[in-house]
Amino acid sequence: MWIIHSLASISILIGLLFFIAGTLGLLRFSDDLSRLHALTKADNLGLGLVLLGMAMLFLSLNITLKLFLIWALVIISAAAVSHVIGQRAYQQQRKKQLNKQPNKQVGETR
What we know:
Blueprint: H1 2-28, H2 32-58, H3 61-100
């Protein structure tokens, strides 16, 4: 029984390290897309490891299925939300680039 508790504790601790790494990525990276990448990857994996550790501790099929259903829903929603945020950040970045380019005057031959 102590082996299961040890593996569960290790899984939860590694999951928490992924959460911390994602948070550091959010604070360290300069642009929106890099921050988004760090958060979505680290948080999804961190949550999976934490829920895996919890499933090992509970040893109930009903609770385990609920935990993995939660993880699946979080992954699906995180993918959809990160796509929308990334698309919006790209559009804003593209708009800034277009605004920096000088407008050609009518009749200008260059």
